[in-house]
């Protein structure tokens, strides 16, 4: 009897993207979720970076410019290009925008907090920005639109209850390099598409310098480890350095708490998150 050959684990990452189909799916996702929640639109923090720009472009395609509010939230050390590029997006899309300077709020927080690292201050800045976005969402009856991509979510590269927070997120299943490809299709300005990724939490801050690898490299590795489910050994055989593979796996495992709601201790027969998992439009 002839044996069926066992499937060979993929060693070539698949990061292919159909931009037109992706745009259509995400446009429908945003529109249906906003309408399902009974909201008037979305509010989004515009950093002048790639991800928030792409999310804004998608939101306008889904809802129209009148239903999208863009908020620019600079700090005193923010690079001038950040605000300039955010304003560029506002002008190109024709959406209502406002500028809220977070420096006074951050300095008031710093006065109450013990001196700490740049990381702690950066976390505070990210959370203060999200407080203001959620306040605006409550004021105008809109959902906060998320901007975290799949790469950041898997690596835990973001602030819990800060930039990782949102009501809906159209980018969370797109790797950073895929977001860049989608940006070109959507017509995001070249200056935004081609600048180095940065959270701009302090002068000369660089995402890739902090991570220790490029998005192009780690996206290829993540596509193998997560999407193709290859083993550590297969990833190394595909050409990735053992130290990089181990670092990325460790980051994925250690940041799981950032990708789920708070874990609830189970006591009853139907515990939230364990047994009661109905979507938010569940009817009794």
How would you describe what is shown here?
- The chain folds into two domains: 19-197, HUPs (Rossmann fold, 3-Layer(aba) Sandwich), CATH 3.40.50; 212-263.
- Helix 1 packs across helix 2, helix 1 crosses helix 7 and helix 4 (103-112) crosses helix 5 (118-140).
- Helices cover 49% and strands 6% of the residues.
- The chain has helices spanning 19-36, 50-63, 80-93, 103-112, 118-140, 150-155, 176-186, 190-194, 207-211, 215-227, 232-237, 242-254, and strands at residues 41-45, 68-72, 96-99, 142-144.
- The chain has 284 residues and is mainly alpha-helical.
What attributes does this structure have?
284 residues, mainly alpha, Rossmann fold, 2 domains, 4-stranded parallel beta sheet, 49% helix, globular
Order of SSEs: HEHEHEHHEHHHHHHH
Strand order of the largest sheet: 3-2-1-4
Helix content: 40-55%
Q: How far is the N terminus from the C terminus?
A: 55 Å
CATH architecture of the largest domain: 3-Layer(aba) Sandwich
Low-confidence stretches: 1-8
Number of helices, where a helix is a run of at least 4 consecutive DSSP H or I residues: 12
User: Taking all residues together, what is the mean pLDDT?
Assistant: 91
How many DSSP E strands? 4
Choose one word for the global shape: globular
**Name of the top-level CATH class of the largest domain:** Alpha Beta
What's the number of structural domains?
Answer: 2
Beta fraction of the residues?
5-15%
Structural class by helix and strand composition: mainly alpha
Tell me about the biggest sheet? 4 strands, parallel
The CATH superfamily title of the largest domain: HUPs
Backbone CA Rg: 20 Å
